[in-house]
Amino acid sequence: MTTAQGARARARQEVTAAIKEAARRQLAAEGAAKLSLRAVARELGMVSSALYRYFPSRDELLTALIIDAYDSVGEAAERARDAAADAPPPDRWTAVCEAVRDWALAHPHEYALIYGSPVPGYSAPETTVPAAARVGMVFIGIVRDAHEGAGLGPLSLPAGLRPEGARMAADFAPGVPPEAAVALVAAWAQLFGLIGFELFGQFNRVVEDRETFFRHAAGRLAEGVGLGRR
């Protein structure tokens, strides 16, 4: 790459980052449903036609923001997992849960973008899937390591749900028993339900010591996937 090409590439990266940052501010002020390329261009002092060279449509800009948000929370989960690498599996699980909660509290509008209400008229493309899977893969890895090590605590599964559990394990959690795969999906939904309730105000005048409450709930989720202390 020539010096001129490198300078152009850096300039494009800088403009792209500025566009996404302006779009995040618009998300915070107006919500994802009202994201407008024209409004972003006005904030940056660009003509709309120039912005379209970076993001040809609102949906492409939304997709970029969604991938960034998933990658950001995924990185937070992975850092927490790695920092607790020598801890027992239940402690690793809880550390990751707390890291995801901390990220959500620090990035409420990005959390709402990826885990809140769907954006009318927008359908996330397959390109968002790898980033969206990062947090889940951290939890699956913790359960798999425990299963291959000291073993998981007892888990049960109704006979009628066993084929679905086997499909889940084969599709996204190889090496994890069907019982644990089903429990992981339930725990994943409950975790984001807990965070969403806190973030969107449903715990107001219900839970006051939210950090202690969350840590306890995360521990119970760990028990639910077979990581209970024995």
From TrEMBL:
It comes from the Bacteria. Residues 13-73 form the HTH tetR-type domain. GO terms for molecular function: DNA-binding transcription factor activity; transcription cis-regulatory region binding. Residues 36-55 bind DNA. Keywords: DNA-binding, Transcription, Transcription regulation. This is TetR/AcrR family transcriptional regulator. It comes from Streptomyces argyrophylli.
